[in-house]
Amino acid sequence: MSSPPVLEVEQLVKRYRDVTALAGVSLTIGGGEIFALLGPNGAGKTTLIGAVCGLVKKTSGSIRLFGVDLDEDPYRPRYDVGLVPQEVNFDPFFTVSESLKIQLGYYARPPDEARIHEVLEALSLTDKANAQTRALSGGMRRRLLIAKALVHRPKLVFLDEPTAGVDVELRRDLWAYIRRLRSQGTTVILTTHYLEEAEELADRVGIIDSGRLLLVEDKVSLLRRMGEKRVKISFSTPVGALPASLDGRAVLAEDRRSVVVTERAGKPSAGEVLQALYAGGFPVAEVDTRASRLEDVLIEILRGGGAP
Amino acid sequence: MNLMGLRTLFAKEVRRFLRVPGQTVLSPLISTTLYFVVFGVSLGGRMEEVTGQRYLPFIVPGLVFLGLANNAFLNTSSSLFIMKIQGTIVDLLVAPLGPGELLLGFVGGGMVRGLAVGLLTWAVALVFAGFQLAHPVVTLLFLLGTAYVFSVLGLVAAVWAEKFEQINFFPTFVMLPLTFLGGVFYSVSRLPEPWRTVSHFNPMVYMVEGLRYGMLGTGALPPGLGAVLLAVLAVASTAFTYALLARGYKLKQ
Q1: Residue B97: which of A85, A93, A106 has the nearest Cβ?
Q2: Complex ipTM above 0.85?
Q3: Residue-wise over A266-305: b if at least 16 C-beta within 10 A, else e?
Q4: Exposed site from A126, A150, B93, B104, fewest CB < 10 Å?
Q5: pLDDT tier at A285, thresholds 50, 70, 90
Q6: If you ran DSSP here, which 8-state letter would residue B38 be given?
């Protein structure tokens, strides 16, 4: 018998008086994937995560975690969930190591020094194990937040803007650690403002705006389907009219020294364009290509250009 | 039930106040010791016996009650309220801790602090007034019942409060006047009318007199009334607080 999806959200609605934060979101997340939830500020990303994690009371709809309906049992599935909240918080009364021990206890796990050491090492906090949390820098407090979310070995981890305000080195370390978690079978759902992060990590991408999930798609196929490639071909001397075969497919610069072709879903291919230019005896000097990134795709979808 | 989660929260609550003993235990102990010195030693010598007791031993149960109730309340109210302000409440709400675990974990911590201050106050009283314990079981019931009820009330205040000003509302405007008018320093049976009748509407009177009966063997009111009142308050406040926590009132969005 196959195991149920890690998370199933159906027609989830959350209203705050006059504001609809989630307007009927449906989403299914399988085991062992990294899912990136993207969208502008106020789109509903944190509300969606909050509703699953017990921080937000839903207005209607259903949420099943590990096959368990949260309306029937809101607590049992949470033993296997970890959350890195967007806002940094820390308990000033305890040390880093004590904070992790407390966290283990909340999840009914006995104190486990080896596990605490492992998590601290992964997050470069080993030398701060006995430091008071109030003495940590902002970046270190965020690392502690991540350590707290992971110390009880959750099967599903929510990372709400996990690398906001951390330095580049730690961001890279974290990405490596998140990939390691996935390789161990952990499902990761992350929201991020750094689209580079989603591009680096995600297997699937969901784009949300105004409480509606506009699109959920495999990242590679999304980039292939929506992605554009901009090809700029420079000439050594100004040229005359372009070959007729390139009409409407290439734009000649005002100084007539370069032409720009936008390749979308593989058409027209840069090879076809170059072939036509060479055949016409154009003095091609340089070719520059730039593939579009998730950022470009996101902007296009939010403008209404890509929702299915 | 997540028993290990409950135990962890309880232990964390106790360790939290023990981390700052000067503020949580020593400070209230000094305040109540000053009451002994001012009201008991200084003024008490000039006062006649109250309900068959010398004045100094007479005020001991009331001062134990004062330290116990205040600190039980302050522990739960300040702990949960600080968690709300600092955002660490997220740790508890995401974890598999239901309303029962949250209630018992916080209240257990509040009771330990309340009882610690109450019993240390009693220990200080030994120096001034000597030891008296007429009914140990009654005394224990009133100590535990008072600690429980005020811990739960502190939790309600913390759930409700959104600003620091609001968290001080109940101890300053409700507890303090009711306690001082609750027979801590005098016997309500010696008040002139209509104040004697009015004081019977003050629930603190029954708790103070119940503890006084347990410790000294005398009281202006039957201890059974105080015990029933505590039991009713315990059940009602527990049901109310459980419902607030289950609903996530002012804790969840």
Answers
A1: A106
A2: yes
A3: eebebeebbebbeeeebebeeeeeeebebebbbebbbeee
A4: A126
A5: confident
A6: I
Backbone angles phi, psi at A79, to 5 degrees: -60, -25
Chain B touched by A55 (CB under 8 Å): yes
Q: Enumerate the residues of chain B whose CB falls inside 8 A of the CB of residue A47.
A: 253
Give CA–CA dist A110/A240, Å, rounded. 78
Residues A70 and A22 in one domain: yes
Structural domain contains residue A304? no
How many CA atoms lie less than 13 Å away from B169 in the CB half-sphere?
12
Please indicate whether, in this complex, the C-beta atoms of A105 and B7 are within 8 angstroms of each other: yes
Is A142 a residue whose pLDDT tops 90?
no
Domain that holds residue A263: 228-291
- A123 and A43, same domain (yes or no): yes
Let me know whether A178 and A35 are in one domain: yes
With respect to residue A13, please indicate whether it lies within any of the assigned structural domains: yes
Q: Using the 8-state DSSP alphabet, how is residue A31 labeled?
A: T
Taking residue A237's Cβ as centre, other Cβ atoms within 10 Å add up to 9
Instruction: Name chain B contacts of A72, Cβ cutoff 8 Å.
Output: none
- Cα of B17 to nearest chain A Cα, Å: 9
Q: How far is CA A139 from the centre of its chain?
A: 20
Residue, of B87 and A173, whose pLDDT is higher:
B87
Closest chain A residue to B19 measured between Cα atoms? Answer: A93
pLDDT, tens digit, 9 for 90 and up, residues A241-277: 888 777 777 888 888 888 888 776 666 677 778 888 8
Using the beta-carbon criterion (under 8 Å), do B87 and A87 form an inter-chain contact? yes
Examine the pLDDT at B240 and tell me if it is beyond 90. Answer: yes
Chain B positions touching A16 (Cβ under 8 A) are 253
Residue A55 lies in a domain: yes
Beta strand A258-264 with A228-235: parallel, antiparallel or unpaired? antiparallel
Please state the rounded mean pLDDT for residues B166-190.
82
Residue A141 in this model has a pLDDT that exceeds 50: yes
* C-alpha dihedral sign at B120, B121, B122, B125: positive
Q: Which of B6, B16, B24, B90 to mutate to test the interface with A (most CBs of A within 10 A)?
A: B90
Is residue A161 located within the same domain as residue A182? Answer: yes
Are A217 and A250 part of one and the same domain? no
Domains contained in chain A, number = 2
Q: What amino acid is encoded at A221 in this protein?
A: S
- Where is A305: in which H helix or E strand? none
Which residues from B are below 8 Å from A when comparing CB atoms? Answer: 2-5, 7-9, 11-12, 15-16, 19-20, 83, 86-88, 90-98, 248, 252-253
Nearest CA in chain A to B82: A91
Contacts of residue B244, defined as CB under 8 A and 6 or more positions apart, other chains included, come to B156, B159
CA dist B84 and B87 (Å) reads: 5
CATH code of residue A240: 3.30.70
